[in-house]
Amino acid sequence: MVPGSCFCGAVRFEVEPPVHSAAYCHCSMCRRMHGAGYVAWLTVPYPQLRIVAGEDRLTRFCSSEHGTRRFCGTCGSPLFCESTTHADSVAIPLAAMQGTVDALPVAHFYFDDRAPWTHVDDGLPRFGGKSGMEPR
User: 67-72 and 78-83: which strand pairing?
Assistant: First the structure.
């Protein structure tokens, strides 16, 4: 199990490898929620996520017609992104992990929505278009 937590430590969780996937998201919702140019996410099936402390501190925010964000109600750290389009898994910010997971980001999604001040030169595949997942 790989541990993770919010900034203040009120919410602690564990992820059981293997991680399903990891990628960068450049959508405006992720950028604003995290206060960053883009966010590195890992995705795991729900049974591989275990919240070990602070579940009562989690706050939900419906961020779109298909997405819900959960964050620590104490420190505000974004922790989980859930979508009805991927109902069997949960996305977790890679930066919330306190240990090494078995996957590194392999692509950039919603790249057409990226902040104009970001520079990405890592050679990873880029996806965009209306869905954010169309090959560029």
Answer: antiparallel
